[in-house]
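User: Please predict the structure of the protein below. I'd like the answer in structure-token form so I can feed it into my own downstream comparison script.

Assistant: Understood. Taking the following sequence of 173 residues as input:
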Amino acid sequence: MNPLDQLKDIHLPEQVSAWPPAYGWWILLVLSLLGVFLLVRWWRNYRFFMQAKRDTKVLLSQLDSSQSDWPAQLNELLKRLCISYFPQEQVAKQYGEQWLQFLAAQLPEKKREPFIETMTPWQHSLYQANAEQVDFEQIRSSAMSWLNNFKPSRSAKAGLAVKREAKREVKHV
């Protein structure tokens, strides 16, 4: 008799199941969902934060030199934008050279001096009857450049968050 005949057949193990997944996959799923949630929240906040800047760009592009009060309209646009990002008490009371310095302070260091040189005639034309001596296109392009380079600070973001919460409270009341 052959000793190999007494052996039993090989038993294959059960198939490995994909369910339930290991703990690592659950952790990865939770972290992925949390990451997507935070990314969507950040994106919505960023869009809300930049809405005033986008609106100002549209209104600035619609500004026309044929309007006799275009310097005042430009001033109003920039004031409204800055009031959106900074406390109203800080922005609303500024005028003249102080206002121009405030606008320049929002730019990177190397762009401040050219901005002030370009915008000084605009600031002087605000309080004159006609603004024909001022180059409208140069002023508008400088203002558009300011809008493109304007980087609101973290304190501006915090102030905007407070304003948004106030708007939400008013809507719920």
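That's the full token string. The helical segments are 23-62, 70-85, 88-92, 96-105, 109-125, 136-149, 154-172.
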